[in-house]
Write a structure and sequence with these properties.
The protein has one helix at about 5-10, and strands spanning about 15, 25-30, 40-45, 50-55, 65-70, 80, 90-95, 100-105. It is mainly β and about 110 residues long. The longest helix is centred in the N-terminal third of the chain and has 6 residues, at about 5-10. It is globular, with a radius of gyration of 14 Å. The chain starts with a helix and ends in a 5-residue tail after the last strand. The model has no long low-confidence stretch (mean pLDDT about 80).
Length: about 110
């Protein structure tokens, strides 16, 4: 994957500092993304404006959005969220090694 080529071609992405290192990272949904069905999501971690690492989330996501923790029961920082109904909202946080996926009640966030 070429980060510059993806951005230049207008591929949808969600920017955020997902590994909490002070550098902008980018989450890109796979082909066919439309919020109507789940697709694989890859996160491009950067350092100094250059690609450092690519990781794939453990689950496919339907509607990709950045999540910034405002809940005192969760660690501070940013992650990705796939909003759902009932207990179907999934929060993805990077712990420095991999992605932690937890489900939450939609009303709580």
């Amino acid at each position: 994957m070429d980060l510059d080529a993806l951005q230049e071609n207008g591929w949808p992405c969600v920017p955020g500092d997902f590994d909490q290192d002070g550098e902008q990272d980018y989450a890109f949904p796979g082909e066919g993304y439309s919020c109507n069905g789940p697709v694989p999501v890859r996160v491009l971690f950067t350092r100094g404006g250059h690609l450092r690492e690519v990781q794939t989330l453990p689950r496919k996501l339907s509607c990709l959005q950045r999540y910034v923790s405002s809940d005192a029961s969760l660690p501070p920082g940013q992650g990705l969220v796939d909003w759902g109904e009932g207990n179907a909202t999934w929060l993805y946080r990077f712990d420095g090694k991999g992605w932690l996926a937890t489900s939450h009640l939609s009303e709580a966030h």
